[in-house]
User: Fold this.
Amino acid sequence: MTGERLVAGALGISVLASLGLVASYVVGPNPQLEGVLLALSLGGLGIAIVAWSQALMDNRISVEPRHPMPSTASERRAAEEAFAPGDLSRRTFLVRLLAGAVGALGAAVAIPVLSLGPAPGRSLFTTPWRDGIRVVDESGDPIRIGDIALETVRTVFPEGHVGSADAQTLLIRVRPGDLQLAADRAAWAPDGVIGYSKVCTHAGCPVGLYRTADHSLLCPCHQSTFDVLRGALPTFGPAVRALPQLPLGVDGDGNLVARGDFPEPVGPSFWNMTHTDGKS
Amino acid sequence: MLGWIDDRIGAASWARTGLRKVFPDHWSFLLGEVALFCLVVLVATGVFLTLFYVPDATSVSYDGPYGPLQGTRVSAAFNSVMELSYEVRAGLVMRQIHHWAALIFVAAIVTHVVRVFITGAFRRPREINWLVGVSLLTLALAMGITGYSLPDDLLSGTGLRIIYSAVISIPFLGPYLAFLVFGGEFPTATIVSRLFVFHVMLLPAVLLGGVGLHLAILWRQKHTQFPGHGATEDNVVGRSFWPTQVFKSSGLALVTAAVLALLGGLAQINPIWSYGPFEASLVSAPSQPDWYVGWLDGMLRLFPPLEGTFLGVTIPAVFIAGVALPGIAFTMMALWPFIESRFITHDREEHNLLDRPQDNPLRTAIGVAALLTFTMLTVAGGNDVLALVFSVPVEGMTTVMRFAVVLVPLLGGIVAFRVAREVGRAEGAPVDGPVTVRPRPDGSYEDVPSDRPVE
Assistant:
């Protein structure tokens, strides 16, 4: 009978594959072989069982009555009576006190959830950049203006904070005459070296791409695009705010330094981000 | 043996009714089962992975066999996943099966939801189980996102960064909530171990409990069935639980596991060594998440740059696109049985017979439109990849998708409505009133509404 043969064949394959699996484990690692053998051993067993149920079993259709979900009216009444508050309904004061006690206990035991994290305070408004702090690259080495070729971009950090997520800054050098910055920020880009926060103002991804053709910074996550020459104003994509510009200067040794923190909060928006007056 | 058990818990009568229980048969009823079997595979492989994974953000130097990363500073978590993949015998295949099982788990749930929606299986008395099901979908997504982030690689770290941004975008609560969840300002050393606790303990406990409840309610209410073959509202027509259904379902479980094993063995997935460890100032381009998160990413990409400040309160674009709209979508989905019976069908009857797509064209149209919205958003989540494939600027791709996400579902919904209605009419769905068939002079026939019921 073909059904029996199919079941027997599938079971046979399964057994062989299982033995092969053990052998492959002993012989050496080979993920492809392990996957295929495991598939054969599971699949053989599965097909055997399905074939068994279809070919060798009584597949009669049965019919079963359905009972309506609602209970009978008398059952419902009995349940309501059993659940009746009885004594509870007369002791309203104690019942309220009981509810209050349970609620107070709940609040008290929920409070330790606050230990999970600090209050945000001013941390979303500030980064480690300060006036006079030196600009360093990924290896912590200070940078001089001459180190940066025209039309190149580098990721830099405040000295002592290499890798900092909120202080990461993009340094780009363009022709000083091409920059169209606000009057009060024009002096922040010595010799055309301009620094913008690398944290996208949309959803916080590092703005990792620079398109030299139109001096645009692009975020690979959601394609927000920022115009480097015009203060990193967004020109396309979902970002609404410009990338904050870092005030840059040069110290007595010729190294690039910050002239203060970013003037606005870096990264994605949050509800009280415009409250930059020192109160949060 | 059976006697020994029955003497102690009196199981014979209960077992007999259970074994005889009738289950209707239709291929689309297997989708939920596939999800269940993926979950079994996820638990089995997941336990194995848990024994090797180290939920620790401490920086270590990678010194395993994978050359390109040797000497790189990585977290202990990343290191443990590398070790699992390259040095633990059968570790990589287990990890890849786990990841594939997760992708197919969510896919099976989504197709199951579509089936339940289109056939109206959520109608009274099954509204509670619909709510349980929507919760299970949400939990499955949460499981996916928390698990995906555990290897602490660059790609998942970027995803985590976006999630953090979505949390801080919530008006008033956002920054506080984000600091509580992440343990401070992103990136924190604690997040990996917290995700681990959620992924291997809290979420699975709730998920497995929910699946138990889902099945218990199904068992109690009995399965729905399609009309025909003697099926009525008051009976169940199908095959008995034992042995047919048990054999078939076990077979399906094993075949599902076999497909997952094949994928896990042959199809590489989440190769974290080519993404590298997470580094806050690095990002990969393109960056695409797992498929079931793509629609959220697409929503963020397509949403226009709109951000308002009202009375000093900023409403970020990310909040509307990444939190509010998805929240509304899930709420609508959860409440759909109540919305439909109250405002659309005005139908509060019990239904055990399923609708076919043509039986309720409006519902079918809404389902199709919702699915197309999801699809368009998912496509938009890969707009940079598509722009590359079609050699068009990504800006143009985004603009096209901004229109497509509104127009395609609208048109698709209208087409689905018309097709469903025509199919229903063609096969003689109930018409508004009784009709008389009358011969025309040219020999053809026409339907004329009758004033009186036909005898």
Residues 179 and 229 of chain A are 5 Å apart (CA to CA). The longest strand of chain A covers residues 131-136.
